[in-house]
Amino acid sequence: MKVYKLFLDIYYNDFGTFRNVYYSLCSVYVQFENRSAHQRKLLKNHFVFRFVPFSGNFNEFMLPFIFEIKEFEQEKLMKVNSEDSWVIASLGIVTIDLPQGNNMAGVLQHNANKGCRTCTASQESLTNSYQDIPAISKYHHTTDVQFKEISDEPAITRQNQLYTEYGLRAKPSILDWLLRERHLQTLQDVYHATAGKIRRLLKLTYDHSDRV
Q1: Cβ atoms within 10 Å, residue 193
Q2: pTM of the model
Q3: Looking at the predicted structure, is the pLDDT value of residue 87 above 80?
């Protein structure tokens, strides 16, 4: 039998820019990563998966999708062009605006001391060009252990200390129920990452000019 392997990319937008003007309506888009780069750019190949209703809970909204993808991760027998075929599907990359992207990666907000999705650099060391990137990077298996340490800690005060120490949220994302690498497959938001660097550069320039 034929085997079809699919990778699904997700884009989640809660339209936070307009949250003070309209009711908060979130949306989830899906596209197939198996397509060529040119095909992935076409608007017609981005599918609206569903709109999250006003005041809806993202986790509850995504549960049916999560359960269905988990079935496809184990292979599923389906009819494709009137032929029995095995279909395997898994989650590809997840693109989300700040700060929701950090939520999906299980990381503290980007303005926290260790609020980067992919590394443990502190706010003070972000401009250090001599960072040992492999040493400070966040790895899925490492944060798995840290999440377990946080959940096993009975004292709330100690839990809060661990949040700050590891730069992690209380619980991992619901997307971690699927087979994925939370830090590599949750992409950085290019606009916010660039804007954050520009803001920091302007602040450093302004502070330096004041001292001069």
Answers
A1: 16
A2: 0.74
A3: yes
